[in-house]
Prior knowledge:
Blueprint: E1 2-7, H1 16-28, E2 35-37, H2 52-55, H3 68-80, E3 83-92, E4 98-105, E5 111-116, H4 127-130, E6 139-142, E7 145-149, H5 158-166, E8 171-176, H6 183-197, E9 200-205, E10 209-210, E11 213-214, E12 220-222, E13 228-231, E14 237-242, H7 246-254
Amino acid sequence: MRASLIQLEVSDPGSPDERRAHAAELVRARAGDDLVVLPELWTTGAWAYDAWQAGAETVDGPAAVDSPTVRAMSTAAGSAGVWLHAGTVVERADDGSLYNTALLFDRTGALRRTYRKIHRYGFDTGEAVWMAAGRDVVTLTTEFGDLGLATCYDLRFPELFRALVEVGTQILVIPSAWPATRREQWRILCRARAVEEQAVVLACCSAGTHADMHQAGGSLIVDPWGAVLAEAGHDEEVLTADIDMDAVTTLRRELPVLQDRILGIPAPEGGIAPLRRV
Length: 278
C-alpha cells in the first residue's frame, strides 16, 4: 500500500474555498497512491471556535451534496483514483448540533464513511462546549486493509483503539491539529498505538499557526512494530511511504500478544480495577 499524508498549512489567511481548492490540487497530484489523508478541521481551523458555526456543513443524507468540502474532496478523490480520508469538518446535524466529523471517500469519489469524533478536547472550553460527542466506532474494509477511524484527542484513549482492533482493524487513520507544545507526546502516542494494536498508524497533523495556536506538524507513518517509516517537519509537505501490509498479519501471527488480553476484569464498586502488586 502506498499512503500519503498531506500536512496542510493552516495559518494562511485564505478563505475556506481557497483552502479547499489548494487541498484538492494536492490530492489530485497523488494519483497512483492507494490512500491519501488530510488533517483535522483544516477548512475552518481546529482552534478557531468563532468560525465553527459559520463554517459548519451538512455531510449526511441528500443534503450532503450542498457541502462544499464533500463536493471538492469527492471530485479530487475520483480524479486521482485514490481512497481519500479528507480529514475532518465541522458538521451540522439535523438537530443543529455540531460535530467534528471525518470524511472517507473511495476511489470513485463516493463518500463511504463518516466518523464523529468521540473524545472532545477542551475540558470546559473549545470542543467540549461547542461540539457534541460521537458514539460510533467506525471501520471500513478496503482492498489493501481494514481501516479504523479516530481523530486527534482520541489518541489519548487506548480503549477506542482496542475497540477498533477487536473488529479487525489493521490501519489506524488519525487526522489531527495537535499543538506544537506537546509534539513529543504526539510522537509517543502514535507509536504506542501502533505497538499495542500491532497496526499501521497514519497520523496526519496540520502545520502553521492559527487562533494563536502553533501546530505540531510532525505527521507520522508508523509500522506495526512501532518503527517510524516517515516523519514530516514543521511546514506544509506531503509525506509518502510504501507499506507492507503483510507485516501486520505476520506480526500478529508470530507475536500473538492480542490473544493474551484478559477481558472483563471486574472493577471495584465505584472505580477502575487497580493493578495488584505481588
